[in-house]
Design brief:
Length: 282
């Protein structure tokens, strides 16, 4: 929100694969702009697989006058390739970025080297100074590959020490996981804002698939409730909307500095929640 006493709001998209998907997304973007988010972000496929689509969409939004942040990871590319891509974003007038390690692209065997996010942050700071606001990923339920809770917090601190400005969390449905995590971050000396990532509940099968892949926990009671709805997608949506609105209220009422929505390129689920929260501009 542009208003300083409004919580931060940002909306994440993934680059569509087809012209039809792109057209639909441009429409969704336009409608979500009614909430005057701080920015929209566009994900980057594992191994740089969406490089051109991500870049094309980011530039399109920017040319429409919309604040936008590309996600970026080394994704197997060499330093010169990544430097050229970042330089292109800078040249285009982009001032925000979400810096990540990313995951191993599917079908890639041994020998593939993933570059940790703190190294990407340091690389961007080294070559581009303070031009970009850099956001990094944070995991209240801890990254699935982390050796321990404390290690993961230590590596997150390393991303901030390397120059990150803010964090965005993986989604979660247990607000206590976020509050405990924030306490641990503060104890570790992290002072930058960490925005909760919010995943609306739209489709149970998809949610289970994403959660299994990224290590986000669906509490058993929630899984059981969703399972009980079976194919009744209208009830799942209605229940999900109420639950996620309550989650967001709890987060904001207890000090979360704002919200970052994983929109799944859809308008309605996010818009309904934001409206329930009363976050529309005057
Ligand atoms: P890192 O911070 O590098 O951490 C990865 C793992 O290594 C952790 O277990 C950590 O504890 C450990 N670690 C970190 N630093 C070190 C170090 N220096 N030495 C040893 N161990 C270390 N994925 C995509 O492919 N595209 C996207 O656009 C995308 N957007 C995302 C946006 C958000 C907000 C979030 C939360 C995730 C996103 N992801 C995306 C998923 C993300 O790429 C994966 O979760 C990935 O596995 C980790 O990325 P990271 O940047 O958190 O990695």
């Amino acid at each position: 929100m542009t208003d300083t006493d409004q919580p931060h709001l940002s909306f994440e998209f993934f680059p569509p694969k087809t012209p039809k998907g792109r057209e639909k997304l441009l429409n969704v973007r336009q409608k979500l702009s009614e909430f005057e988010p701080d920015y929209f972000s566009v994900t980057y496929g594992a191994g740089g697989s969406t490089r051109d689509n991500t870049k094309g969409l980011v530039k399109h939004f920017h040319n429409e006058g919309v604040p936008v942040a590309p996600h970026l990871s080394f994704g197997g590319d060499d330093e010169e390739t990544i430097k050229a891509l970042i330089a292109e974003y800078k040249e285009a007038g982009i001032t925000r970025m979400v810096a990540l390690r990313g995951d191993m692209p599917s079908g890639v065997g041994g020998g593939y080297e993933m570059i940790y996010a703190n190294e990407l942050v340091a690389f961007i700071r080294k070559h581009f100074g303070d031009h970009f606001h850099l956001a990094v990923a944070a995991y209240p339920e801890i990254h699935p590959q982390a050796k321990s809770y404390d290690d993961d917090i230590r590596y997150l601190k390393g991303k901030f020490d390397a120059g990150a400005d803010s964090g965005i969390t993986q989604y979660f449905y247990n607000p206590d996981a976020y509050f405990y995590f924030m306490d641990q971050c503060h104890k570790a000396g992290i002072t930058q804002p960490i925005y909760p990532g919010v995943m609306p509940i739209i489709n149970f099968q998809n949610l289970t698939r994403f959660s299994d892949a990224c290590g986000a926990e669906i509490p058993r009671w929630l899984r059981k409730r969703l399972e009980a709805y079976g194919d009744d997608s209208a009830s799942i949506k209605a229940f999900g909307e109420e639950l996620v609105t309550e989650l967001c209220e709890t987060l904001l009422d207890n000090g979360a500095p704002g919200l970052h929505f994983y929109t799944m390129n859809q308008y309605e689920p996010v818009a309904n929640i934001v409206k329930h929260l009363g976050l529309q501009p005057e």
